[in-house]
Write a structure and sequence with these properties.
This protein is an alpha+beta fold. The chain is built from two helices and four strands. The strands form two sheets. The protein has a two-stranded antiparallel ribbon with strand order 1-4. The chain has a two-stranded antiparallel ribbon with strand order 2-3. β2 and β3 form a beta hairpin. This is Ferredoxin.
Length: 76
């Protein structure tokens, strides 16, 4: 399976964990809220799930890249 990850900027608390761990995929916007870098490489599935699970505000959303369905990262 292949996953796509997005940041829900409404609930991001700007902890910076995602930006620090994967600056090639995440950055801070002008308001210091995390966002994905346009054209960023795709992370391996296990890394994507681990990163989403470790987000302190659960602002990292994971989607099935083929169907577009949101993935429950705690059930995967």
């Amino acid at each position: 399976m292949s996953y796509r990850i997005e940041v829900d900027g409404e609930i991001c608390i700007s902890s910076g964990r995602c930006v620090a761990e994967h600056p090639e995929v995440f950055r801070f916007d002008d308001d210091e809220v995390a966002e994905t870098v346009p054209g960023a490489p795709t992370l391996p599935d296990d890394v994507t799930l681990r990163l989403a699970r470790s987000c302190p505000s659960s602002a990292l959303l994971v989607f099935d890249a083929q169907t577009g369905d949101e993935v429950d990262v705690f059930a995967s």
